[in-house]
Amino acid sequence: MFMGEYQHNIDDKGRMIIPAKFREELGNTFILTRGMDQCIFGYPLEEWKVLEEKLKKLPFTKKDARAFTRFFFSGATECQLDKQGRVNIAPPLREYAKLEKDCVVLGVSNRIEIWSKSIWEEYFQESEESFGEIAESLMDFDL
What we know:
By secondary structure, the chain is α+β, with helices and mostly antiparallel strands. The protein has a single domain, classed as Chemotaxis protein chec (3-Layer(aba) Sandwich), CATH 3.40.1550.20. It has helices at residues 20-26, 45-56, 63-74, 91-97, 117-129, 131-138, and strands spanning 2-9, 15-17, 29-34, 40-44, 77-80, 86-88, 102-109, 111-116. Strands 1-7-8-4-3-5 form a six-stranded antiparallel sheet, sandwiched between helices. A two-stranded antiparallel ribbon has the order 2-6. The chain is globular. 24% of the residues are buried. The model has no long low-confidence stretch (mean pLDDT 93).
């Protein structure tokens, strides 16, 4: 399981170090794709296959299902870590997530998320204010 928040930088060539705690679970080869909220999602190959099977079951006759699968799969790219534990993030993904220098890498259960630091800070501040309300509306149990 992925968890935690780590600050990293992306270099001029689009390379970023993946936190050491995430590398083993991600594996040497993994998938990066456009995520929600202007971040990048990263999945180990096994998790990607599970997600792919779920998305294949969406009815292609529904416009929203087609739009979502296009968005999600068209941004997907198979990535590998180099010897220094870095990943080269494809230009379209960097542009989508507005990754320029300062980044935040999050562990979110079965995936990692890569955020521009400024976008993450703004998102976190907005979400933090309503965290209690969100938890109350989604969960039937106490934390």
